[in-house]
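Input.
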Amino acid sequence: MATTDRQNLLSDAQPMGNISNNSNNNLEPDLEAAGQPSILKQSSHPVCLIFHFLFRIGAICTYFFGTWFTDNFVLIFVLCVLLLVFDFWTVKNVSGRLLVGLRWWSENKEDGTTTWLFESRDPSRPLNPVDSRLFWTGLYAAPAIWTVFGILCILTFKLTWLVIVAVALSLNMANVIGYTQCDKDAKQKWASGFASNMLGGAGASGLVGGLMSRGISRMAGSMF
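Output.
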């Protein structure tokens, strides 16, 4: 009886390997559900993403909280302008190229006219959605905040502070207009290139030839 009972107990028991596998399988969903990686870890260019917001947030904080530390308007003005210039250069030349694959600049011709030039990434190279979303959010959010500051200056009759707001809006809107037009230009180039590949050259002849051959084979099959 003792031998029989021992055999029954061993046969009903689950192997140790199965127990460890089941426990690991149960732990994996818990580890995955514990939390997603941070935005910086999801970003392809975390340092660039930080500097995309660093200078503009610094300028906004200096403007809003500067009077808490000093009454010197000239000092606040100089700090804000410096931060705004650093932000303009960083967004125009670095973060736009790395985060969304776009770059714009303007050239003055001899006749006095200004020409806008755009560069864009290869459409076959996908963008990081986190980088793209945060880039456009920061690009449009900053001038919206400065617009609110300008309205408050008018309502409170602090017209001197409008000088800082005017500088901020001019620099921020230059990047907004430049990158908006650059993005439209990139989409138009992608659409025209896609259409030319589909409708022109060997691609079009292959597409039309395939359709014609299928139609002829179907007609021959129905007739015979």
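The chain has one domain: 39-213.
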